[in-house]
TrEMBL record:
GO CC annotation terms, alphabetical: plasma membrane
Pfam families: DAGK_cat, PAP2, YegS_C
Residue ranges of the TM segments: none
Record keywords: Cell membrane, Hydrolase, Membrane, Transmembrane, Transmembrane helix
Gene3D superfamilies on file: 2.60.200.40, Phosphatidic acid phosphatase type 2/haloperoxidase (1.20.144.10), Probable inorganic polyphosphate/atp-NAD kinase, domain 1 (3.40.50.10330)
Name under which the protein is recorded: Undecaprenyl-diphosphatase
């Protein structure tokens, strides 16, 4: 009898086939020619398997939706919009910096990174179907674009915003990054690379836009305690109801910032005396009369109103409490006060320091001492005064920001440099900027300082020769980068004389226009103003 001993062959099971196919695809998910990459690839796949097989109660429903909401940056641009309409300058800066960082990180990942590495997406047979609620991506896996955008936005926000905002944004960014692995869209290595690129993009924004310190330093008052009452007794508050972007009472239904600040002062400091300054009122007179009877002079308004109050406070040597109520509020932001609530807190804590005050005064003897005009932020000569003049005429009809844009365009078409003698040297000046203290930012109107007590004037000029660089000079105002403008000069001094051979001098002082005699002197009153600040004054 003949026995057939032929070999029996068994077809592999379906699970074995699927496993072999998965291993083959994962083997091609990363270049295998470099031993280090092979080891990193094995570690990456092992970590992915651990996350894919994990069961985190409740997150199967949360993380997939969060991941999908982050598609195309929708989550981050929504957050930026919410921060932008919050009304706080630090949050607006944080939102803008985060958006700029995304604009840098996203092309770096999607155009450069993914095309350079061409890594395959993970095989998702270990990921429960409940987590996969979207169409599987077809683009390359490395690096993760979602993670890069998340890290870029979170880093940009962290450079500007307070911890109360930065920490939740960072936690959300971390959750989005983890969700990309948890839902099977990326290997952990893809996510880590994306986070690194995004963080570098956020930090890199400081190269072109330096982040500002939250509070400028002031010197200790050093002259005894300031009288502070919890109910506000002894406080006289001058409230300029015309301040802010909606100076026209008929402009809208929302209350102006000055009105909100007034309501909070009345509620929190019921014993304080309130002086309401209606549109068209004499700010200097109101502040001078209030300072006569005040233990603390409070002022609600923009930088122009604060300047008038500072002059009154200097004359009576009373401390100044600045409550933001204008459009820009540069000085109140410099002392760390961005809201009326922070101003009230600074008052109750009695944190008073001394800040410099700059001034401009006519050189002519007949002008008298009373002609001295103080400024706390900036004074400008040249094309900027034309921009302000045109903006003021337009803003009641179309709003401050559209008016600024229209004014810049018209100035671009019609302006000419002014002839000046600066400390005895003849110059054709497009723009002259004089800052009360040294500014750390660039631009025609820099907005932040590290100190308010350095005793210096920060002078920056754009001058020209025979041909005026009109476009570049006006662009310097709008874009804020004077250093890229031909004819730019800057220096520090404690005093400066300016003479206009052609007649009266037009000056924008803390945003307020004035006409001065042809010959003036800029100078300083070092540490002359006592002012409340949100942080304790420091020495040095």
């Amino acid at each position: 009898m003949r026995v057939n001993h032929s070999r029996r062959t068994c077809a592999p099971s379906r699970s074995v086939t699927r496993r072999r196919s998965r291993q083959a695809q994962e083997h091609r998910a990363w270049p295998q020619s470099v031993p280090l990459l092979r080891r990193l690839g094995r570690m990456d796949r092992w970590a992915f398997d651990q996350v894919a097989s994990a069961r985190l109660r409740g997150l199967e429903y949360v993380l997939p939706r969060l991941s999908r909401f982050a598609d195309h940056g929708v989550l981050w641009f929504s957050a930026a919009g919410a921060m932008g309409i919050a009304g706080r300058p630090r949050l607006r800066r944080a939102a803008l910096r985060g958006a700029i960082a995304i604009a840098v990180a996203s092309p770096a990942v999607n155009i450069v990174g993914k095309q350079a590495f061409r890594r395959r997406r993970p095989v998702v047979d270990l990921v429960p179907p409940i987590r996969i609620r979207w169409k599987l991506p077809t683009s390359h896996a490395f690096p993760s674009g979602h993670s890069a955008s998340a890290a870029a936005f979170a880093t940009g926000v962290a450079l500007e915003a307070p911890a109360a905002v930065g920490v939740p944004v960072a936690a959300t960014a971390a959750a989005v990054a983890f969700s990309r692995v948890y839902t099977g869209a990326h290997y952990p290595g893809d996510v880590m690379a994306g986070l690194g690129i995004g963080a570098l993009a956020g930090i890199g924004t400081r190269l072109v836009w330096p982040s500002r310190p939250p509070v400028a330093r002031v010197a200790p008052a050093g002259d005894g305690n300031v009288r502070v009452a919890q109910d506000g007794r002894g406080v006289v508050a001058v409230v300029n109801l015309a301040s802010g972007p909606s100076a026209d009472p008929e402009a809208g239904i929302l209350p102006r910032r000055s009105e909100i600040a007034l309501a909070l002062i009345e509620a929190e400091l019921p014993a304080a005396e309130i002086v309401r300054l209606e549109p068209g009122g004499d700010v200097d007179k109101a502040c001078a009369e209030a300072a006569e009877r005040a233990d603390v002079l409070a002022v609600v308004g923009g930088d122009g109103t604060v300047g008038a109050a500072a002059r009154a406070a200097l004359g009576r040597d009373v401390p100044l409490l600045v409550v933001p109520g204008g459009t820009f509020d540069h000085f109140s932001r410099a002392v760390g006060v961005e809201t009326a609530a922070q101003a009230i807190r600074a008052y109750r804590e009695g944190r008073v320091g001394r800040a410099d005050v700059s001034y401009v005064t006519p050189l002519s003897a007949e002008a008298g001492d009373g002609a001295e005009q103080v400024f706390l932020n900036t004074a400008s000569i040249g094309v900027y005064t034309e921009v302000v003049d045109r903006r003021v005429r337009l803003e009641r009809r179309i709003g401050k920001w559209p008016a600024l844009a229209v004014a810049a365009v018209r100035t671009l078409r019609h302006s000419e440099p002014v002839e000046l003698m600066v400390d005895g040297r003849r110059r054709r000046v497009w723009l002259a900027f004089v800052g009360n203290g040294v500014f750390g930012s660039w631009g025609a109107a820099p907005t932040w300082r590290e100190r308010l007590d350095d005793g210096q004037l920060d002078v920056r000029m754009v001058t020209t020769g025979s041909r005026a660089p009109r476009v570049r000079a006006v662009a310097a105002i709008v874009a804020g980068h004077l250093r890229v403008t031909p004819g730019y000069r800057s220096w520090r001094t404690t005093g400066m004389e300016v003479v206009s051979p052609t007649g009266d001098l037009r000056l924008a002082r803390d945003g307020e226009l004035a006409s001065l005699p042809p010959a003036v002197r800029f100078g300083k009153h070092p540490r002359a103003l006592r002012v409340f600040t949100i942080h304790a004054p420091v020495t040095g």
